[in-house]
Write a structure and sequence with these properties.
Blueprint: H1 9-39, H2 42-46, H3 54-61, H4 65-77, E1 82-84, E2 89-91, H5 94-100, H6 109-119, H7 122-131, H8 143-154, H9 159-163, H10 170-176, E3 179-183, H11 189-197, E4 202-207, H12 210-223, E5 228-232, H13 238-241, E6 247-253, H14 262-272, E7 273-284, H15 299-316, H16 328-338, E8 342-346, E9 354-360
Parallel strand pairs: 3-4, 3-6, 4-5, 6-7
Antiparallel strand pairs: 1-2, 7-9, 8-9
Length: 361
């Protein structure tokens, strides 16, 4: 048997790298299957149930058995689902169900959708590598939906107990009644939650996506929230169109780095704040230097998101193309350039993906 330590370093490195790539191919396939399991409801159907045959599972989920059976094969090989070959049954362990359904604190199957979602625009991105330019928002019909699910796990569960309290006395001010703006609000789930919790305050959401704003308006109308308004708005000129001193609190949740002109938006946010106002920012936790992101637990994935969405949608608008991984150093520089002088940076235990900045004029 060959002793690996006797091989030249290049051969050892090559072998290890080959093994890593093969593992990455398997894990990528697992993520595609995981996204399918999430979207078809297979994980939810399996969770907490006794062992089922492929036919029983297909019937319970209302799906085609042949597809379900092949999917189960991938889940068994991937170590996600257990099987009893003698009985021909399959079972999702409770510990796995807690991470793949809404039963646990975080449904990680939601994030698997990014792989297939971004892979769908690969041809467009390759064209941009050769010709420049970007891929427009219209090529991502489900992105707002997936981001809303992401926000539902990172922002909403911690909004009242951890995020808003980062700014001293902010909860009390919201209870008394202040004016709040969320820029790049998407489907507005944070605003919907705050409008319910703080009826004395007035809330406004701006976003470029007509589909996202339509969804948010429907939700606000159904909930009878008359202290909440949404507006389709291009924020690339917000530095000159923002009404001075119009808001006491402005928020952005992962909303700066894919803007066409992030500097202008930040200057507009500063302009729109009252003298005692607060700007609360959630954005990606990263460094502005590639070599310092090597140990980032989600670094490679977030660069993939940047190339295939955040950077390119900005470039499609003739924008800066800041990218997902713009980093804390650049974020601080942009905030200071916008006029903010009191900037505090926080990280929350539940959220390894984001930094939280509390900024005052």
């Amino acid at each position: 048997m060959c002793n690996v330590h006797s091989l030249p370093a290049t051969e050892v490195d090559s072998g290890a790298f080959e093994a890593r790539l093969i593992n990455a191919l398997n894990e990528s396939g697992l993520m595609l299957l995981t996204a399918i399991g999430h979207r078809t409801g297979l994980f939810e159907t399996l969770a907490g149930r006794p062992p089922l045959t492929s036919q029983q599972l297909a019937d319970a989920a209302g799906l085609d058995e042949r597809y379900v059976r092949e999917w189960l094969g991938g889940m068994v090989v991937g170590g996600v689902i257990d099987t009893d070959p003698s009985a021909g049954t399959y079972q999702l362990p409770d510990a796995h169900a807690d991470l793949l359904t809404d039963r646990g604190p975080a449904n990680l199957a939601i994030y698997a959708q990014f792989i297939s979602l971004l892979g769908n625009v690969e041809d467009d991105v390759v064209r941009c590598f050769r010709e420049g330019g970007g891929v427009p928002y219209s090529r991502y019909p489900r992105f707002q939906e997936v981001m809303a699910s992401d926000s539902g796990q990172t922002v909403l569960p911690a909004l009242f107990d951890a995020i808003l309290p980062l700014a001293p006395s902010l909860i009390e001010r919201l209870e008394a009644g202040i004016r709040v703006l969320d820029c790049a609000c998407g489907r507005g789930r944070a605003l919907l939650a705050m409008a319910r919790r703080f009826p004395a305050s007035r809330f406004t959401g701006y976003d470029l996506s007509e589909q996202a704003i339509a969804w948010a308006r429907d939700q606000a109308r159904a909930a009878g929230l008359d202290n909440l308004a949404f507006e389709v708005r291009d924020l690339s000129d917000f530095d000159v169109t923002a009404t001075p001193g119009a808001f006491d609190l402005v928020t952005t949740f992962d909303g700066i780095h894919d803007q066409a002109r992030p500097r202008r938006l930040l200057k507009g946010i500063h302009r729109s704040l009252a003298p005692d106002g607060v700007y609360l920012v959630q954005d990606i936790h990263a460094s502005s230097h590639h070599h310092l992101d090597r140990d980032h637990p989600l670094g490679t994935m977030l660069y993939a998101v940047s190339v295939s969405h955040c950077m390119t949608v900005s470039l499609a608008q003739g924008g800066e193309g800041l990218g997902t991984m713009w980093g804390r150093e650049r974020a601080l520089a942009y905030l200071e350039e916008a006029g903010f002088r009191d900037i505090r940076v926080h990280q929350l235990e539940h959220d390894i993906q984001n930094d939280y900045f509390v900024c005052r004029p």
